[in-house]
Amino acid sequence: MAQWDTSRYTSLFISEATEHLEALSKELVRLEQGEVTAEAIDSLFRHAHSVKGMAGSMGFEATTALGHKLEDLLDRVRTTPTRFDRGVADLVLQACDALTAHVKAVAAGQPFPDAAPLMAQLVAATQSMRPGTTPLPFKENAAPPLVETTPAPESNLPPRWLISLKVSASSAQPGVRGFLAYKRLGSLGNLFRCAPSLDEVKAGKLQGGLFAVELETTETEANIQKTVSQVADVTLVSIEKVVAPPPVPAAEEARPESSPGDRVVGQEPQRTVRVKTELLDEFLDLAGELLLATAGVREAGRTLHEDARSQLNVSVDRLHGLVRGLHDKVMEARMTPVSVITDRLPRAARDIARRRGREIELIVAGSEVELDRAIVDELNDPVLHLLRNAIDHGVEPPEERRMRGKPPRGTVKVSVRRASDRVLLEVEDDGRGMDTERLKTIAVERGLITAEQAKDLPERDALLLSAAPGLSTATTVTDISGRGVGMDAVKRAVEQVGGTLEIISKRGVGTTFRLSLPLTVAMVNLLLVSVGDDVYGLPIGKVAGVVETTRATLAHSQDLPVLQFGQAVVPARELSALLGVPARLHDVNAACPFVVVETDEGRVALAVDALLGQEEVVLKALRRPLDKVRGLSGVTVLGNGRPVFILDVARIDAPAPHARAAGGDA
Fold first, then answer.
1. Dist. CA 491–CA 468, nearest whole Å
2. Which of 654, 599, 603 is nearest to 457 (CA)?
3. What mean pLDDT is predicted for residues 23-36?
4. End-to-end Cα, the chain, rounded Å
5. CA–CA dist 18, 372 (Å, integer)
6. Strands 510-518 and 591-599
7. 224 with 189: CB under 8 angstroms?
8. Residue 565: is it exposed, middle or buried by C-beta count within 10 angstroms (0-12/13-18/19+)?
9. At residue 102, what are phi and psi to the nearest 5 degrees?
10. What pLDDT score was predicted for residue 406?
11. Is the dihedral of CA 573, 577, 582, 588 positive or negative?
12. Residue 504: is its pLDDT beyond 90?
């Protein structure tokens, strides 16, 4: 008999096992903070059972063995929920981490980590729990055969069907075919009992190739038959309705959301497909190229006769609309809910709080808000660092909070909301707040600012000193926040995706880190300027304003030119000098536009030859060797075919990297 090749299912195993393990970790943290219920424990058991079953189907014996030991412990907890405590929770999370390591090993093609010591702990913990009350029912793999006795009808539930299936005797892998049929039916609704058990189906232990399941669904009998027919080597023996509850009211059918306790028929998996992110990136590049090509056709049409140009413009307008629609759909496909980040935070907050002796209540709001996947990918580490800082440096220990008249349990809130064409992500704590005077003192000691600058520094800018490279107010380095990603790296990561960082803090009250983010990094609004014979783009989000004046009227401070901007003065620089490109001859008495931009070193006025207007463009990443050029962040192509470099405004006025202090944590 030919050996079954499981490699084609590896990616499916990795994605589904990861989802189950993340859900298990999230639900366990929530269970720790609330009431221990039979339903909650049963949910943990289901996730562990699913991972074990999938690993068994793939032939991953080490993962199956570890999952089995975790399943045994959770099964024992189901019989005595009162025995669930922090020790059990810690052990379950360790097992969850170990199973995650196994899944990552599969993805990397590496050997499984040794989990023998952990498995011994799981066995010991399981044996230490004596059976108490009757085990809580777990219906998915109930051993009793399906009989005609059925639960009482419920008015708000869809129909339930008894479906008998047969796997062909000639099938090389009857267990695989049976499991695929089970999964396909699961996409139509909620599966309950399976006889024989699902484990036996996966193992191919089918007498006469027969097995049966109960399916709760709103799909028609014809659609159920069609779904089964799509699985090779599996035939439908019989299908009959075993429960006939009253029809679901129309208002219930149209309801967009349901409470956690409702049973929701799972129709969405039929309309969902997993797509590689690299493929989406390629689609976006192609859609961007089409937009640029359309603009090029329009530009070429300007040379035609008026009648011909008018006819061409009609077609180009239609083409542009279609291409822009395609581009928008690709962008929509790239959008990812922020829950990809926030779902990991409860577990992280629990672990950090336990290690630092803090009592923390984590509140997450707005995780359904969507952002471009590229932005979400860049925010994982920065948001986690902000959470670490909030717990480790922001929230006081319980004793200190009591002395300050605060409740012993601190609150950290992570909220996400849309604000016009931006997304605001805030990490807020009710801790001790930040000491701006101490920040100024350390910044002066490190030579980042002068004592005179520190004296007149606004509160907003003083708080942002915490994101300066090499500046940290921490008196001790801990294993929580004092290594790895620093506040300077957080600020840099946010700005690399076109966002900004703002810090709001009040001593004794708390601190809020606010990230203002664009919805996407693929399209960017630029202010086009000319310098010599070249055209450059400045991101509008970094432009504070434009002042037109003469070079002769500029004031000087410490022999450097400065420009009056609002109530403050900012350094004035020649953009041509910063970029190292040839400049035009200038009349110092002629009016010159100065573009005031936000850089890492503060506001700077850049002298340019002319302003060419604003334009929304498709951003394209730089490739070697241009990606190594300091001061450039990307490139685009205008409708006339002219390439335009997009400037990295945040660091355009910064000194060379070797002249800056080494990065550190705040």
1. 9
2. 603
3. 82
4. 62
5. 22
6. unpaired
7. no
8. middle
9. -65, -45
10. 93
11. positive
12. yes
167: left (phi over 0), alpha (psi -120 to 50) or beta: beta
Handedness of CA 532, 538, 543, 545 (dihedral sign): positive
Convert 268-294 into a string of H (helix), E (strand) and C (coil): HHHHCCCCCHHHHHHHHHHHHHHHHHH
Measured between alpha carbons, how far is 215 from 191 in angstroms, rounded to an integer? 5
Report in angstroms the alpha-carbon separations of 607 from 93, 559, 600: 57, 17, 18
- Count other Cβ atoms within 10 Å, centred on residue 421: 9
pLDDT of 659: 32
Upper half-sphere CA count for residue 329 (Cβ side, 13 Å): 9
Alpha-carbon torsion (348, 354, 356, 361), positive or negative: positive
Q: Which of 18, 6, 45 is nearest to 99 (CA)?
A: 18
CA gap 363, 659 in Å, rounded? 41
The domain locations on the chain are 7-128, 139-146+158-244, 277-330, 338-434+473-518, 523-659
Going by CATH, does the domain composed of 139-146+158-244 fall within 3.40.50.170?
Answer: no
Residue pair 134/79 in contact (Cβ under 8 Å)? The answer is: yes
Average pLDDT estimate for 436-452: 87
> What are the C-alpha distances in Å from 514 to residues 378, 446, 504?
16, 26, 8
List the Cα angle 381/383/388 in 5-degree steps: 90
The Cα–Cα gap between 292 and 290 comes to 5
Residue 624 DSSP label: T
Give backbone dihedrals phi and psi of 315, rounded to 5 degrees, phi first: -70, -40
**Which DSSP letter does residue 370 get?**
E
CATH of 7-128, one of 1.20.120.160, 1.25.40.620, 4.10.520.10, 2.40.110.10: 1.20.120.160
**CB contact at 8 A, 578 and 653:** yes
Other C-beta atoms closer than 10 Å to the C-beta of 334 total 23
What span, in angstroms and rounded, lies between the C-alpha atoms of 455 and 451?
A: 6
Please write down the HEC assignment for all residues of 128-147. HCCCCCCCCCCCCCCCCCCC
CATH class of 523-659: mainly beta
Is the whole model's pTM more than 0.85, yes or no? Answer: no
Q: For the domain with range 338-434+473-518, which CATH number is right: 3.30.565.10, 2.160.20.60, 3.40.50.300, 3.10.20.600?
A: 3.30.565.10
- What CA–CA distance (Å, rounded) separates 91 from 120? 11
What is the SS3 assignment for 544? strand
Residues 93-132 pLDDT 10s: 999 999 999 999 888 888 898 888 899 889 888 888 765 5
**Beta strand 602-607 with 568-574: parallel, antiparallel or unpaired?**
parallel
